[in-house]
Amino acid sequence: MKVLIVGGTGEISTSLTWALARAGHDVTVFNRGRRQVALPEDVRTLQGDRDEPGALEAAARDASYDAVLDFICWNGDQARADVAAFAGRCGHFVYISTVWVYGPPRCFPVAEDHPCNPSDTYAKNKREAELVFAQAADGIRFPATTVRFHATYNDHSDWPGILQGDGTAPFRLVRGKPLLIHDRGVLPTHFLHADDAAVALHGLIRRPEQSRRRTFNLVGESLTWRAVHDRLAEVLAVDASYASVPAEIIIEAFPDRSWALAGVHQFAMCFSNEAICSVVPEFSVSVLLTEGYRRRLRVAGCERPYALEDPDPDLTRSLDELIGRTEVRVGY
Fold first, then answer.
1. What's the confidence (pLDDT) of residue 301?
2. Which of 63, 87, 235, 312 could form a disulfide with 142 if both were Cys (CB 3.0 to 4.6 A apart)?
């Protein structure tokens, strides 16, 4: 297949680029070229900014593609640009969306027919893009598929946590400091390694007749937030302790780092993969979070010594101050 990836060097799309190239597909990536990510030698790169007038059209005119996957479409305007560029020029278009479009879940597990009621700007914009593609897919020129992800990571990702850009968890664990968790850490969430995501996406574009004009959830291992951190403590061979603080207090204390907590992580997240598994039976959650942590530590170049230096002293002080002034349960 001839495949274009809009993006191609991100947390999910890098794994897909490698997987498709290894499978012998003709792969082109289109992006701004700002990330220094190693890609297979036979992958072609088109450098450009999708928001520059004519940039996507130029990529579309360059060749006719069997499949186009867009990882960096964030709103309705960008979706309309995709439709203008690729309608009639690709056999299958796959939009990478998010389960955040559901908003606070009303029932479990959440399947693709769950009502969408996005509660934050990011999710509202992604939902608007979904609707643009759905409307275009009603015609015959734009056979689109939407895939909704949640908490996908790779071997270079930040450490999973409830605050954006918080890399302090290994340091806190090794130093015996309590980890901040919200609402006792009992709410479920999902984590999916990008290598497993690549298997699913590859399967979808190999089966266009079964996947076009459909929407799929694509999520990973189901864990409570406390279990997310327990797995890291296990890999680091230390005991974990926790400071449980209500989500609303954390959001107030860290407004610039808690948009994900405010958006969805303060709710229980439990999604169904049944639809995608029915189309892509080879997909499974093969990289569990424990193994994902081990791989991440190997990338860092060492095991426990990596955690001995505080990566963010200012954040560490802020976390200690919040824990110290908030009535919490520590060590359970």
1. 56
2. 87
